[in-house]
Structure formats: C-alpha cells, structure tokens
Predict the structure.
Amino acid sequence: MRKRTLTWQVAGFAENCRFTVSDRTSRHDKRRQLAFTLVELLVVIAIIGILVALLLPAVQAAREAARRAQCSNRLKQIALAFHMHHDTNKFLPSGGWGYRWGPDPSRGFGANQPGSWAYSCLPFMEESAVHDIGSGITVPADKKAALTKILEMPVAGFYCPSRRQPVALPNIVPSSYDPINANHPAISAKSDYAANVGVRTSTFGTLWFSGPASQADADAGLGFKPNCFKNINGVVFQRSEINFKHITDGTGNTYMVGEKWMMPEHYESSEGSDEDDQSCWMGDDFDLHRSTSFPPAADQLGVSLSASQPFGSSHPGVFHMSMCDASVHLISLDIDPEIHKRLGDRNGGEAASVP
C-alpha cells in the first residue's frame, strides 16, 4: 500500500514538473513574439520621418496663411485710419515735410505736420498715447527729447508678422540725417507698409527731400519742392492734402497704402538699407512711400531694388494692397505692369480695376 502511494506521488510530481516547464516555455515564446526586432524598429522610425517631412510643408503653409491673414487685418486697420482721418480733416494723411523732420503733435495734420502719414494715423488707431508725446512742452530741449522718444516707439499695427517682430531697430542713419526738430534716436520704429505716391514721370525730378533747413524757413514756406510734386498723381506725398473728390478714377480703382518691398537682409538691422533706414514717424522718404512706376517684387536675399523701391512683400507670390475705398486685396506679384501703373494713378482717366 505504501509502495503504491509513493508511486502515485512520484508520478504526480513528475506530471506537475512537466506542466510547469511547458507553461513557462509558452509564455517565453509569447514574449518573443510580441517584441520588435531592430529592423522593424528602424522601418517604423523611417516611416515616421517620411510622414513628418510630408506634413511640415503643410504646417508651414498653414502658419503662413495665418500670418498673411493677420497682415491683411493690420493693413485694413491702417486703411480705416486713413478714412477716419479724412472724415475728421477732410483730406487723407499727408506725407510730411522731408526725411530730416520728425513728427510734432502741436502742429496738427496735413501740410503743417512735419511727420509721416503713419504718424498722422496714430490717433485713429487707438495710439494717441504715442502720438501725443511732447504735447504742451514749450522748453526747446525738453521738446526735442520728447519728440525723439516718439521716433523710438514701435507700433505693432505697422509690422507684417511674416517679416519681423514689432520691435524698434538700432538707428544706423548718420548724424547728417538727424531730424532737425529732434535728437539722434538710439533706435527707430519701422513700418512694413507704404503709401501710394503714384506714377513717377520724368517731370517729377527727385521725389525725396530733406525738407526746410529750419522751423523759420518752414513757416515761411521755404525749403519745399512744389514744382517737383505738382504733377504727382498718387494720394500721399510731401505736404499732400488729397480729398476723395481728387480721386476721379474711383476710390475702388486707386491704390492707397500697401506692403513695401524690402531686402530680407535688412529685416532685423536696416543696415545699408535705403528702404527702411529711418523711423516710420519721420517725414517723406522711400521708407513710407512707393511708386507704381515699377512692378511689385518679392523680397529675395541678395536682390536689391533700391533704385526703383517698389511695392512688394515676403508672402509667396502675392502682396496686400488697400484701395482708397478701404478694401484690402491680395494681389499677385505678376500683375500686369500697365494695370499696376494705372491703379496708382488717382486721376489718369484710364480704365483699370483690381485683378
């Protein structure tokens, strides 16, 4: 009896051992089946890399579309400021006195205002705090210091988000270009938008001037160049006071303000840049005025168009332009040059509409 019991126990133990070994082997095989091999892992990583490479252009395009929409909105706000300026003063913002004259809040708007059209737009863009710096100050030295501060203050609404951040840049303009009514600014506010000065013809002569040599000369009407500007057919230029009644080609068929061409090398420095070297609150210069005599152009590294200073942008293939009716259009950089010229002319009588 004892022998039979012992045999059964030994047989049971052996059976239990066989079951345990078989179970462990099965689980080990399952773990081996669930693991990735090195080749499989590399293939997965390669596939993920390909998908990321395919998605990046789409993500970048979506970001650019968002920046382009923001740029359009900022230009729309500028266009509305033009209209509110017109409603208040009965004319569009003036181009200022010259590239050696900064703004002065005590001199109002229009031909009496030495600062730029952008400066005159500030009260109509909820930026009166910037516009009014220095107002009421009579001590000459203190007044100059206050007006210098304006030149250094950037306003985000004048910057294209596809191009650069709304910050002031170091002032690299030589002292011979310093403003007559302010001190040499350490930094300068910028603008990525320019007003339409119209079609440049041989009768224009040189478009840009430093302006009067002194306040006394300015008050006496000296130092301006009326003969060179009398035939300008745009809407903003030196001491301009253009009313909508002067835009006989139609406000919806005439450029008002749009994006300007720049060299990408100058986005963050303005060094060696004629198109962006002054503060955007200074009087008339290439920085704030563009002609339609030349086709619009894309910003390109190493490509200088300083001789023509056209409209343009950093957006692929297009640029934004506001018409005199305050509508904002996305216009191809390949627009027919003749149509582009006609849209810059406020009173030429040519049949032209935004393509």
In short: Residues 72-344 form one domain. Confidence is low (pLDDT under 50) at residues 1-11. The longest strand covers residues 193-198. Residues 28 and 218 are 95 Å apart (CA to CA).
